[in-house]
Amino acid sequence: MSFKRQVAYNTTVQVIGKAIVTLLSVFATILLTRHLGPTGYGYYNTAVTFVGFFIVLADLGVYPILVREMSQRPEERERIYGNIVVYRTLSALLVMLLAFLVGSLMPYPQIVKFAIGIYALASFFGLLVNLVMAVFQINYRMDLPTISDVLGRALYLFLLFFGLQRGYGLYGIFWLLVLTTIFNLILNLVLGRRYIKFKPAFEFPFIKEFFKESLPMGLVTILGMIHFKIDTILLSVMKPAYDVGLYGAAYRIFENLIIIPGIFVGLMFPKFSELYIQDRNILKNTFQKTIDILILAVMPILILFFLLSPYLIQIIAGSDFAPSALALRILVFSLPFTFLISPFSYLLVASKKQTRLIYVWGAMSILNIVLNLIYIPKYSYRGAAAITVVTEMLTLITLYILVNKSLNIWPKFGYLFKIILPSLILGIGFYFLSKSQIFNLTYFINHSLIIQIIIVIIVLLLGLLIFLALLLLFRVIRKDEILEIIKIRQ
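Request: output the structure for the sequence above.
Response:
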């Protein structure tokens, strides 16, 4: 199978898998928001966000550096992997204990403090799952962990449904996450055995050298986490849990959308790492094609999710969360910037210039904190959403300049101009559709939940197909380019 088809296959499988996982997560969120209410869901979101900072701290940039090193040094893969598994297990255990201890000192209600401890345990096993993912990524077999993820989410939804029927509270909900994360870990270990032999090792000189490489990336990831999550933390301190719950519902949808570029660029990252060593000219071309594809992907998503925001919030959280729709509509305007940040960041890591990302994310994190401190007291979750758009735009501009200065690569954004007309046609068409009787929000609410979900899925698929047809009609992409990817070769 050619590299182009490998990427297309893995991306397609992951997107389909992510769509299924997202649908399962939607049902789980529906159960959680309706069972917990805005305040209880605010507690849930606070615990998840708080532990999220420590997840990044436990990683310390290990994952991307592990993928890069195993891609560039295939003859040493088993040695590299054996050392890093042992190192990561020990560091993850210590950091998750730290999360529980620090959480117990925070000015949160007691229920949130204990929830942090349970979720920290689930996150420990989740960090081990990520190590196995690196093996699948460098072998372009992301279909296997995708299947595992789907099965794990389905199991969680099944257990959650019956758990809530039995009256499970916040603690029970998080214990179910622990069980299903252990299930995912075991399944991924079984599936990954055929691609690499695990031989535990702890060579201190090797770990020390690896740590020097991963530490800058770890700092970058921590700063990036602060950049993305500090608004929720500050919101939880300065505003009631009700506001945190409203913002959490909108941000949950947004988080699922920004996984899309991560899937695609994550598959390209090993190739970026190889080409940086082998051929810089091909690297430039590959990077440009990555940018083009992401531009084509983000525009219909922005348009459709902007128009569908009230309906998505209604499905996921219900009428009590209706104000979340405005936050989601603001957040989707940051998607073009967020989609394109991923390839620029990965390219710098592939070229071993990850230390320069520290300054970018450090500056953006400080700016994010300052702006949130100014605007959250007045505008609450609406201000937090708007600040996300501003800081994402500034981050992309900064990374663009940095890539040019560091690697002499000037990626072009010509596809933005090519898709203006198809995007306008799609937006105008679906704007009028949103004004039709079937999309009258009062009429929409009266439908059963299943019918609501079916309507939204049909509209999303129809929108994407129409946009693809418009791209072909205006010759933004060619039919033979699509056929080259999907055709079967012996």
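Residues 485-490 have pLDDT under 50 and may be disordered.
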